[in-house]
Amino acid sequence: FTFCIAAASLPADEPESISITHYLLLRELPTDLIALTAIVNYAAHFQPVVGVTLAEAAQAEHVTLVGGDQASGDADWLAENGCQVESLDWEQTAHILPQRIAGNAPY
């Protein structure tokens, strides 16, 4: 799977056409071992693009935002730009991602 680290920021331009099926957007790196394990296992199983770049996430059909400030506006911006967006806090990440692996359902 792909795991990249870059600075997250709102892009100045409109995103280009959708070219990524699923992007797992980390608003911040997890400090909770259970959530981190869930993210690694999920990424290994479904192989989404994993990163922290909002502009890159905007190129995806499906975006799962994990951790960080739920009120940041990132989810709204991505939805306005054509992405199907789901936002999970760390507790949800630790519980929901393993359930998705068990059910073989990425979203």
Distance between the termini: 17 Å
Helix and strand composition category: alpha/beta
Give the strand order, joined by hyphens, for the main sheet. Answer: 1-3-2-4-5
**Average pLDDT, all residues:** 86
For the largest beta-sheet, the strand count, sense and barrel status come to: 5 strands, parallel
Total helical segments: 4
Percent in strands: 15-25%
Q: What is the CA-based Rg, rounded?
A: 13 Å
Low-confidence stretches: 1-10
Number of strands: 5
Helix content class: 25-40%
Assign an overall shape: globular
Helices and strands, in order, run as: EEHEHEHEH
Keywords for this entry:
22% strand, 4 helices, alpha/beta, 107 residues, disordered N terminus
